[in-house]
Structures
1.
Amino acid sequence: MLNFMKHIDGVAQRITDPLVPFLLLFTRLWVAWVFFKSGMVKYSSWDSTLYLFEFEYQVPLLPWQLAAYMGTAAELILPVFLILGLFTRPMALILFMFNAIAVMSYPLLWEKGFFDHQLWGMMMLVNVFWGAGLFSVDKLISSVPKKHSALQ
């Protein structure tokens, strides 16, 4: 029985290993699209955004104006890094924390959007723990041979 389980696991691993880079790309692009789209909505209806940050969102420790600018900037800038796969782990971690603050700051999300935020959080954690994968600028940078200086 143990040999059978090991065999099945080995077969599954041989099938799934080549798909991991696609999974990492998928999670990066999905989360980037969701947050970038949200940032564009905030930017395109700025008066509504300011209203929401002043009266609806309860962002801790920050004045609502600063929270509005920082939140919108985060949703527009961080996804670009994820799409490129550049500084993926730190950018995904920052976006993960941003996502958690969004959930805590807006109690209405608990009723209607909490599942989505959990899903996006898990997708970001995938990239925090496993990186950007094969299809990324991070991979390009890490595969460039290092030049040795004459002083070494």
2.
Amino acid sequence: MPDFRAFLARFRPAGSPGPAAAGAVPADRSAELAAELRAPLAATDAAAAEAAAIREAAAREAARRRRVAAERAERIVRSAQERALDVRHETAARLRQEAAAEAARADAAAERAVADLRQRARARMPDLAARLAARATDELTGTPDTEDAGKRPEAPAPHRETPWAQGGSRE
């Protein structure tokens, strides 16, 4: 029986195809390349599996972060809604204070205007009273005042629709 080495030598790759050589088989380059790439491809398979595991872990972490962010956003919204009522009350109180201050300023301005008007009326009252007394005296005595002679305004005509304008009574 031939030894094992001799047996395997029969299957030793030979050169490029051509005339058959004794005791050899033609070389299978694709098998050689596949055998040569088997180790790096096996490492690539491991890297692909590791990448898939990393992607799966990243997807779980992203889902967890989204869940945490959604819970946090919900807490923030709830807090804002609770705080909104307080802010509305604070704003309403501030606006009431501003309105009260504005009303006080308007009241003070009105009081000043009234005081000014009263002062002007007091200052003009003696002259006006004297003129009215003189006019009333003139009308009663029938003598025209020299100051107002020719300046008396005509009495306005009564409105046509009033019943007493034609001599009727007011009742």
